[in-house]
Amino acid sequence: MKRKLKLGLLGNGIGKTQSKKLHELIGKLYDLDTSYELMDLANKENANIEEELNRCKKEGFDGVNVTHPYKVNAFKCVKTMEGFPKGLTSVNTVLFKDELIADNTDYLGFCEAYRKRFNEQNPGKVLMLGAGGVGLAIAYGLCSLNVEELIVHDMNEQLATSLVEDLKNAGFNARLIKSSVEEEMKSVDGLINATPIGMFQYPGNPYPKEGFGGQKWAFDAVYTPVNTQFLQTCEENNIITISGFKLFLYQGIEAFKRFSGIDIDSDKIEEEFLKEYPLEK
Fold first, then answer.
1. Contact (CB, 8 A) for 189 and 123
2. What are phi and psi of 85, to 5 degrees?
3. Helix H or strand E encompassing 103
4. What DSSP assignment string belongs to 36-79?
5. 197-244 pLDDT, tens per residue?
6. pTM for the whole thing?
């Protein structure tokens, strides 16, 4: 009899996510009876992530992923796993044991996506827009990759200031933007979009077109659609890109490892996923 895994995703506006396909495919490939339920909280008045997590636990879920905009609040009501980065205050993967145990596989997924593309190359000086849940994870990923300097901007100044202060307290070189985004773009090696801008429900490009050119690489956390306006503009300016699909893939594989306790061949999963679900350009 196959071992069963009951999994799910909590977030807002998650109708187009590929997470269900990914987790159920991994389960199938590793002979696990896996279900993955999408639980969109966008229309739920005063949704409380702690209440939702406890509900899932009572309903017999083995674990769930948490996405925008609940990652930071979820951190406040869980116990983090051993090895969790000091200073990181967001989670995206929660296991239901005697207590709520959580990890951040966005952090691990970003590092894997970067290394697969650039090996040991230093990220250099990086400008990141977005200091929310996924931005937090990417920031700590960049620090583990020995980023030279991380410049952060968010429309919510308090979020950006808090992230920069936490990074500096942890011994990393980080600061807020000093001038305009366009001006800061001219002096960096890497550009990162950690905002929701570019998603199907939030179309657009978070960076001004006038600032592109001269950067070496770029990463977009958005993966629905895969080929965002931001990445298109980067490619038009000969900037090497990493799509959000890679973060989606590797964070999902790392999450499934925690849900199931088994090791996963990431190259095999990527090959099988793209064979089953070719990316829409």
1. yes
2. -60, 130
3. strand 100-103
4. EEEEE-TTSTT--HHHHHHHHHHTT-SEEEE-TT-HHHHHTTSE
5. 998 888 999 999 999 999 999 999 998 888 999 999 999 999 999 999
6. 0.91
